[in-house]
Amino acid sequence: MADPNFFEKQPNESYTIGVEFANRLPFSATVSSGTVSAKDLSTGATDNSVLSGTTATISGTQARIKVLGGTHQKNYKVTFAVTLSDSSVLEEDVEMRVREI
Q1: What is the mean pLDDT of each run of 10 residues along the chain (101 residues)?
Q2: Which domains are seen in the chain, by residue range?
Q3: What is the 3-state secondary structure (H, E, C) of 21-34?
Q4: How many helices and strands in the chain, by DSSP H and E?
């Protein structure tokens, strides 16, 4: 079974990724807003240059962001944090692996 918490991309690719929160929402809560950050896993340093911004686009129960660039053979942790209508906060991490073919 594939691990849904990572994806691979080439350094010059840019496209939108999303995280689905539907199965984690408390009863009658909705996703109100979201932020996104990226961390270089080799150094532990924040590197938001691989993101189009730090504010997620919310579409229903999904948070989305466009990923950009990245350095060949580096892995990044992309963290989505969403605030819900009941003031709860949910977080999900996705690993982005950059590989040039």
Answers
A1: 78 97 96 98 97 98 97 98 98 97 85
A2: 6-98 (2.60.40.1220)
A3: CHHHCCCCCCEEEE
A4: 0, 7
